[in-house]
Design a protein that fits this description.
Layout (H helix, E strand, L loop, with lengths): L1 H15 L4 H5 L3 E8 L2 E6 L2 E4 L7 H14 L7 E6 L2 E6 L9 E6 L22 H4 L10 H13 L3 E6 L5 H9 L8 E5 L11 E5 L8 H8 L6 E4 L6 H9 L7 E5 L3 H12 L10 H11 E10 L2 E13 L4 E8 L3
Parallel strand pairs: 7-11, 7-12, 8-9, 8-10, 10-11
Antiparallel strand pairs: 1-2, 1-6, 2-3, 4-5, 5-6, 12-13, 13-14
């Protein structure tokens, strides 16, 4: 009986999204991403591209989410992670979905693969991209073009960046400049308490927390993992969600960034430790191990400051490791010297 109920719900779900039905049936399509009713992408053969489909309305998507929730014995909520026979489906409704309803449909493999099927993946040079294999540049900190080139390398090489500073130091404005460097071929997920980021990446989904409905930043970091992100960016970390972000950036979602309040680049790292400690998951994690995890996750801390009429990066600090007593760093750029 349960299976019949699930199949009925799946048929209801598909009927509301019939415009993408052919992609749900196409064995060559792995993921269907409805960023909003008029912005739909698919992943096929490892490549993502936008598709033109007959109009899907806001009502269609909301009705599909309602059917999805019912099949999973859940209430309709602004953030949902559900199953259907043959599919894993995540959904976000306003106010969490800043640009309207968003749904990401991941299809389970329908055929069993043998080791021989992976042969092509083991051919030398098949995996990885050129930008990520490029060596870290050595720069002259007195040359602004080289400093900007270093930041471009951080983004192109998919390094994780921590942007710190006091209130009004230009953290969000600088993060917007960094986001503009993300290649148009990548899928971006942004998470904020209050929407401020300016997104120009074609394939992007933006989430905003809704504390009054029980949806906080930590919930959204976990939901973002179900939306097939290439990069995850959090507008500002303040608490236990720091642990979830750290975990996400360490598990195949590099190239992320976040901002936080701190009075220096070094203090930002120690404040991050304290915020990660707010998660119950770190109760038994030794401090040296936590510091090593932070050092392994973030490549650079960019400290922003307000100096006269200038707001923006004052220092770039490269993390090179961690010890029991602290972090190993080197200064790449320092505007105060």
């Amino acid at each position: 009986m349960e299976l019949k109920v699930e199949e009925f719900a799946l048929n209801q779900f598909r009927s509301h999204l019939r415009a993408v039905g052919k992609y749900m049936d196409d064995p060559g399509v792995q993921e269907i991403m409805l960023n909003r009713p008029d912005d739909i992408w698919i992943e096929s053969g490892g490549d993502m591209h936008k598709v033109d489909v007959p109009a899907i309305t806001d009502v269609n998507m909301r009705s599909a989410v309602k059917a999805l929730a019912g099949a999973n014995h859940k209430e309709v909520q602004p953030a949902l992670d559900c199953r259907m026979p043959g599919y894993r489906i995540a959904a976000a409704l306003p106010p969490v979905g800043i640009n309207g309803p968003a749904i990401c449909i991941r299809k389970h493999a329908r055929t069993r693969r043998s080791l021989d099927d992976y042969r092509e993946a083991f051919v030398a040079g098949r995996l990885g991209d050129v930008a990520r294999q490029q060596d870290e540049p050595t720069i002259d900190p007195a040359d602004p073009d080289q400093v900007m080139g270093y930041i471009r390398w951080l983004v192109a090489a998919k390094k994780n960046i921590l942007i710190a500073g006091s209130t009004g130091s230009g953290k969000t404005t600088f993060l917007n400049a960094v986001l503009a460097l993300i290649p148009a071929t990548e899928r971006l997920l942004t998470i904020e308490d209050t929407a401020e980021l300016q997104i120009h990446t074609p394939n992007a989904v933006s989430f905003e927390s809704a504390p009054d409905q029980g949806v906080n930043i930590r919930t959204l970091v976990r939901l973002a993992l179900r939306f097939r992100p290439d990069r995850i960016v959090v507008g500002e970390v303040r608490g236990a969600e720091s642990y979830d972000l750290l975990d996400a950036l360490n598990t195949g979602h590099s190239g992320g960034a976040c901002t936080m309040h701190a009075d220096s680049a070094e203090l930002a790292l120690h404040r991050l430790e304290s915020m990660v400690r707010m998660s119950p998951d770190t109760a038994n994690l030794p401090l040296p191990a936590l510091r090593q995890q932070i050092a392994n996750t973030f490549t650079a801390v960019i400290y922003c400051a307000h100096r006269g009429a200038v707001r923006g990066p004052e220092r770039i600090v490269r993390l090179t490791g961690a010890t029991e007593t602290g972090y190993l760093t080197r200064t790449v750029f320092d505007a105060t010297k």
